[in-house]
Design goal:
single chain, 0% strand, transcription, IBH1-like, IBH1_N, 6 helices, mainly alpha
């Protein structure tokens, strides 16, 4: 008799890998840093620090869950290795390779530039790869939001 696997508990799914890593990261933050788990009201500097730490944990968890197969996850992992203070910051284009745009494409130059700035590692991709990576990045962000909503739901009940 075959037992159907529940897609919500599939250990190889990105959602499951992200959830496990993210919960471990949050637990580590709670154990190592009193500012994350303090029940008292936070001032604005502490609140910003807490938000940055949680955001960094979420991005790192998602990048590790995806692994080095995608350029955006490699860019995030590279930032983690380089120990940058902010995980996501406005990027400036310094000598990046630009993809060629086919005039038949509906995406204009301004929109392409914005897309390159949104997708980690996007400034060094050709246009077709940028679109492929963007689709995968959006899927991962949706999975991240779904997992975080479930965590919030379970923690509030």
């Amino acid at each position: 008799m075959k037992i159907a696997k529940n897609p919500h508990t599939n250990p190889t799914s990105i959602k499951t890998r992200f959830a496990l890593r993210f919960l471990r990261a949050i637990d580590k933050l709670n154990n190592n840093n009193n500012i994350i788990s303090t029940p008292s009201p936070l001032n604005s500097a502490d609140r910003r620090r807490r938000c940055r730490a949680i955001r960094a944990a979420a991005y790192a968890s998602m990048a590790f869950a995806v692994g080095p197969n995608k350029a955006w996850s490699r860019a995030v992992l590279r930032k983690i290795r380089n120990r940058t203070k902010e995980m996501i910051k406005p990027r400036t284009r310094r000598g990046a390779v630009r993809g060629t745009i086919n005039p038949r494409n509906e995406l204009g130059l301004g929109q392409e530039k914005e897309l390159r700035e949104l997708v980690p590692g996007g400034e060094a991709m050709d246009f077709r790869r940028l679109l492929n990576e963007t689709g995968h990045y959006i899927q991962c962000l949706r999975a991240q939001v779904q997992v975080m909503r479930k965590i919030l739901h379970y923690s509030s009940t």
